[in-house]
Specification:
This protein is an alpha+beta fold. Helices cover about 10% and strands about 25% of the residues. It contains 2 helices and 13 strands. A 6-stranded mixed β-sheet has the order 6-13-8-2-1-11, with no helix packed on it. A hairpin with an 8-residue loop joins β1 and β2. The longest helix is centred in the first third of the chain and has 24 residues. The protein is globular.
C-alpha cells in the first residue's frame, strides 16, 4: 500500500468521525441542552405558609359614617370593649381635661369661650355631640343659668381622641350686671360629657381672677364638638 493510499484512508476516517459527531449533536434538542427560559407568571402566596417575617399589608376597617379618626391611629388605640366595630369607647369625665379660653370682645354684647376637650388617658376614647358647661360659685356649686343647646357651627359627630388629642366647641353667653340680684354670678365653670351636672371644674384662660367672682351669665348657649377650631366660636 502506497503512502498516497494511506493518506486518503486517514482523511476519510477523519471525515466520517466528524460527520458522526455533528449528527449526534444535532440529535440533542435545545430543550435538553439549556431548556427554555421560564415564563413570568404571577404567583399567589398562601399567607398561612409564608415566613413569619415576610412583609404583609394590614388593612383596617373603615370607620363608621360620621366617625373621625386620627390618620395615624391604629387598632392598638382602640379600647378592648369596642365590640369589634372599630370605634373607641366613650370618654369619661375623669379622663378629660377641659380648658375654656375667653375670646376677644366683638362689641355685640355677647361673650364667647373656646372649649378645648383633651384626652388625658392612656387609650383612645370617643366624644360626641357636646360637652355640657355650667357656671359654678366659690363652693363649686352649680349656679342656675338658662342654657340652650345649639347645633353651631354644625351638627356634632363622634370624634375619636387619641391620648393628648383635643376636640373643640364654642359657648356663647349674655353677661349681666353683677349688682343685680337676678344676675347669675360665679367664678368657675364645670363640665360633663354625660349630660349631667356635678362634674369636675374646667381650666379657665383669660377670665377674671376666681376670687373676684366676675363671671356673669344671664343666659348660655352651648355649641357642638368639632375636630378642629375653625368656626366653633364664629357664631
Amino acid at each position: 500500500m502506497t503512502t498516497r493510499h494511506i493518506r486518503l484512508m486517514m482523511i476519510g476516517a477523519f471525515g466520517l468521525g466528524l460527520a458522526l459527531t455533528q449528527q449526534a449533536c444535532a440529535g440533542i434538542g435545545p430543550d435538553l441542552v439549556a431548556g427554555p427560559a421560564p415564563s413570568a407568571t404571577s404567583e399567589t402566596v398562601d399567607e398561612s405558609t409564608a415566613p413569619a417575617d415576610s412583609p404583609t399589608t394590614q388593612v383596617y376597617a373603615s370607620p363608621p359614617e360620621g366617625q373621625a379618626y386620627d390618620d395615624d391611629a391604629g387598632p392598638a388605640d382602640l379600647a378592648p370593649d369596642d365590640g369589634g366595630k372599630g370605634r373607641a369607647r366613650n370618654c369619661a369625665n375623669d379622663g378629660l381635661q377641659v380648658t375654656v379660653t375667653l375670646q376677644p370682645d366683638r362689641g355685640d354684647r355677647a361673650a364667647r369661650g373656646l372649649v378645648a376637650v383633651t384626652n388625658t388617658g392612656k387609650r383612645a376614647c370617643s366624644v360626641e355631640g357636646r360637652v355640657m358647661i355650667w357656671l359654678t360659685n366659690a363652693a363649686g356649686e352649680v349656679v342656675k343659668v338658662p342654657a340652650t343647646q345649639v347645633n353651631e357651627p354644625g351638627a356634632g359627630t363622634a370624634i375619636s381622641l387619641r391620648p393628648g388629642r383635643s376636640a373643640f366647641q364654642g359657648i356663647k353667653w349674655a353677661p349681666c350686671d353683677k349688682g343685680n340680684e337676678s344676675c347669675p354670678t360665679g367664678n368657675g365653670l364645670g363640665f360633663s360629657v354625660n349630660g349631667s351636672t356635678g362634674g369636675p371644674g374646667a381650666e379657665l384662660s383669660g377670665f377674671p381672677r376666681p376670687e373676684s367672682s366676675g363671671i356673669t351669665m344671664k343666659s348660655l348657649r352651648i355649641g357642638t364638638l368639632q375636630p378642629v377650631t375653625q368656626g366653633v366660636v364664629a357664631w
